UniProtKB/TrEMBL annotation:
This is Acetylglutamate kinase. It catalyses: N-acetyl-L-glutamate + ATP = N-acetyl-L-glutamyl 5-phosphate + ADP. Catalyzes the ATP-dependent phosphorylation of N-acetyl-L-glutamate. The gene is argB. Transmembrane segments: none annotated. Residues 5-249 form the Aspartate/glutamate/uridylate kinase domain. Its EC number is 2.7.2.8. HAMAP family: ArgB (MF_00082). One of its GO terms (biological process) is L-arginine biosynthetic process via ornithine. Substrate binds at residues 45-46, 67, 167.
Length: 285
């Protein structure tokens, strides 16, 4: 059913803090790649970035889920995301025999962005510095790699047309790539079990929702911190043509495969409009 279809899988940096979770997740990615799904892996690296910033005496500042990125921090961002995290994932791909190629949003004009001007967030003016907003995704380079059966491993570091490097949230980049490739699925693997009705109650997981449901959660204040850029990314991906967005935990051992190959799944599935789906479609993973 999914052979030849595009899945964009975004893995949060948190997974790489634990070797067993990392292997577990990458083994599932390997299976999806090996059965003929065109997998694009987009990675984060927020916790690693925070750690290296602190070791260099830079106090990390994150506002509404996005990192304020000054001149020194954009250098750290490209060192950590393009260097450390991307290369570590490629090493695991070697071990698991996945033919993978590392790229970033800078490569071959993949992500064209501009520096975000100071914006009002939660009532105050915030200058995010070298943080980018996406103008265009040119996914040609990814199509070429996928046509050669190579798995792209994408770091979200991007640039403007002058070559100024910009930091973009990995969920945002994954959503843009999903929309550009009209992906069958965007899978966001995060530390949370899925989208929760109440962030303090891990049992309040929402199994199935749509854009109206997501808006309701936002309006009632259920979405906070890192879930804010994730919710925006989910909305943009679906409006851009991605059929299904899944939010799953990297902590449960078979979360990706269960989400794809069982009706129940383990996390949250978001579609454009639940009532527009046929009963059969509502059943499908
Ligand atoms: N309604 C919610 N459901 C789930 N997580 C939420 C919600 N609201 C806020 N969060 C927080 O958002 C976090 C996910 O964001 P973040 O840690 O930035 O993600 P990642 O690094 O995986 O991209 C969760 O671990 C949780 O603390
Ligand atoms: C602008 C912005 O916030 N960029 C993110 C990029 C990394 C990321 O998104 O990593 P996770 O998926 O692990 O959170 C950051 O600096 O943390």
């Amino acid at each position: 059913m999914y052979k030849g279809k595009v899945f964009v899988i975004k893995v949060s940096g948190g997974v790489f803090g634990d070797a067993a979770s990392t292997h577990n997740l990458m083994e599932q990615v390997a299976i999806l790649h090996q059965v003929g799904i065109r997998v694009v892996l987009v990675h984060g690296g927020g916790p690693q970035l925070t750690q290296v910033q602190k070791s260099l005496g830079i106090e990390p500042q994150i506002v509404a889920g996005r990192r304020i990125t000054d001149q020194k921090s954009i250098e750290v961002t490209s060192m950590v995301l393009n260097g450390l995290v991307n290369t570590r994932i490629l090493g695991i791909c070697r071990e698991l025999d996945i033919a993978a190629v590392g790229v970033s949003g800078v490569d071959a004009g993949l992500v064209r962005a501009h520096k975000r001007p100071p914006v009002k967030v939660e009532g105050r003016l915030v200058d995010y510095g070298y943080v980018g907003d996406i103008d265009l995704i040119d996914a040609k380079v990814l199509q070429q790699l996928l046509d050669e059966r190579l798995m792209p491993v994408v770091s979200p570091v991007s640039a403007d047309d002058q070559g100024t490097l910009l930091n973009i949230n990995a969920d945002t980049v994954a959503a843009g790539i999903g929309a550009a490739l009209k992906a069958e699925k965007l899978m966001l693997c995060t530390g949370a079990p899925g989208i929760l009705e109440s962030v303090d109650d891990p049992c309040s997981i929402i199994s199935y929702t749509d854009l109206t449901g997501l808006q309701r959660l936002k309006e009632q204040g259920s979405l906070k911190d890192g879930m804010l850029p994730k919710a925006k990314a989910i909305e943009d991906a679906i409006r851009g043509g991605v059929r299904r967005v899944h939010v799953t935990s990297y902590k449960s051992p078979d979360s990706l495969l269960a989400e794809v190959f069982t009706n129940e799944g383990t996390g949250t599935l978001v579609v454009e409009n639940i009532s527009a789906l046929s009963p059969a479609e509502q059943q499908a993973g």
